[in-house]
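Weekly modeling sync, notes
Attendees: S.R. (lead), two postdocs, one rotation student

Agenda item 3: backlog of single-chain predictions. S.R. asked that every request posted to the team notebook include the full sequence so nobody has to chase files. The rotation student volunteered to paste the first one in as an example of the format we agreed on. Action items at the bottom.

Example entry:
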Amino acid sequence: MNEEAKIVLSPLSQEFSRDGITVTVEISRIEDGSEWALEVIDTQGMSTRWEDLFPTDAAALAEFLSAVEEDGMSVFVMPSALH
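Predicted structure, as returned to the notebook:
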């Protein structure tokens, strides 16, 4: 069987803007899975993906928001996108 796993996108996935920077926050899981993955994609297509999985989609979003508060938005974009 070569059936691909279906991906479920959380309703908490969203575009997020702060400090003039907009990213796409994607929170997803495998259809039969229980843990959520977190990925942040900038406007240039650069992706930041957390290695750890989260027990809920809300926990994944909280981790992203915590990272924004601690590190700022610039950590999620390519340096050339800041100019």
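Discussion: group reviewed the output briefly. Helices lie at 57-71.
Action items: rotation student to repeat for the remaining queue; S.R. to check formatting next week.
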